[in-house]
Amino acid sequence: MLSLWCMNAQAQSIRKNYREMTAKEREVYCTALEALRLSGRMQVYATLHSTHSNLSNPTLVPPVINTYIHNSEDFTPWHRWFIYNFEKDLRNSGAPGAVKINMPYWDWTSVNYTSVPTDRTPAAPIFNDSYYTPEYGFLGKYNSLWSLGRIATSSSYPTNVAVNDVLSNNIYSNHTAMRPRLEGVLHNGVHNIVGGVMVTALSPNDPIFYLHHAMIDKIWQDWLNVGNKLNTFSNNTMPSVPVGSFLPNIGVDAIKDSRDIKVFYADNGFVNIDKYTVSNQIDGTNIDNTNTENFRYTGIINLGGSATNFFTVPSGKICNVLSSQAIVLKPGTTILAGSVFSAKIDATSFTTARVAINDVVPDVQTPNNDNKFAQLLIFPNPSKDKVAIFTDPNGEEMLDITIVDISGKAVLYQIINGLNTELNIQDLSAGSYTIHIQYRSGNGVNKLLIKL
Q1: Which CATH class is domain 371-452?
Q2: pLDDT 10s digits, 132-172
Q3: Is 62 left (phi over 0), alpha (psi -120 to 50) or beta?
Q4: Regarding the domain with residue range 17-226, which homologous superfamily does it belong to in the CATH classification?
């Protein structure tokens, strides 16, 4: 089922490069940061991180410091869960518009932003004072405001070559594997370049910490997405601390893939939502007592991709997708009977979105696989003038077809009485429509139609 909707609830997290953020998104993010700082919640996160960092492992002889969340296999899952919960607190900060916050990341390789100033220099916009100008400024003012002591005078940030070296290793954790390179070269290097609080165990007091660790988390997920990776851990239990622990308990196996906690990473204007089934659950627990998942992103949203890179909306679930540019339904996208799926293009929802407005693009909208209307095809779609509608020869006869515009108004009605037909849509305005097909048995089905 396709429906119209308005996304006011919290969305799944689509994290993008902070350089893609609109001026309004930066303003909302900073307002939420300041609310957490004022309430003391941000400092609580820093204290928890410090407590973990200063624990030792008594099972080793001699004991080794920092074996819990640093210099150990738990480095990536612990920090993934840490920034995920901070992101939730940002959304719940009470700041206007904060409910829609997605944690941005700082790509210090600057592979997609090569014009001056890049993100590899002291002049990087992340260090600038003003977050109201889209191209310049974000978190700079907090250096003096919160006495963070940043140095950031070097331009020797890890390169894309170093990132590719990490991605090329197929084993997660041993002395020469992916994790030690990710932590030792990429993670530690940036902490040391920024300096100040960032080189201490209280580094989460600097808001740059979270954007840096979102980048580290993205690289871990990119590594997993490449395929054929040995992403195994010796223990499913993440480190716990005797005091100051407020993070919900979760096992390593439940967060080894960021998709399991509803986190997706966009890159250069695109995000792929694949290998994913809408559930609104994390580790078997319902997130907010609803059956709804919301995805919103200023760039292009690709759903599915293939039989193995699937995107499924099961029966009983509701899925809303919002983009200011395009939503592409690729092979492997399955919207099952009894579910509700909505796709909407709307730049105004993002307030001065920095991408162009196009339309919903159904590359392939995979029909339901569990009912007698599985072979209903609409072609071509999108179309400028005519579309042909075909039903499987063994299926039911169509009785009539109604095309409904985005306001819910019926704009075309045609009696069919057969298995196949052709519709002339030349007089329709460009945009998204719903085709409702009524069958002789009384059953009906909705399909998305794009008029160019």
Answers
A1: mainly beta
A2: 554 557 999 999 999 999 998 888 999 999 999 999 988 88
A3: beta
A4: Di-copper center containing domain from catechol oxidase (1.10.1280.10)
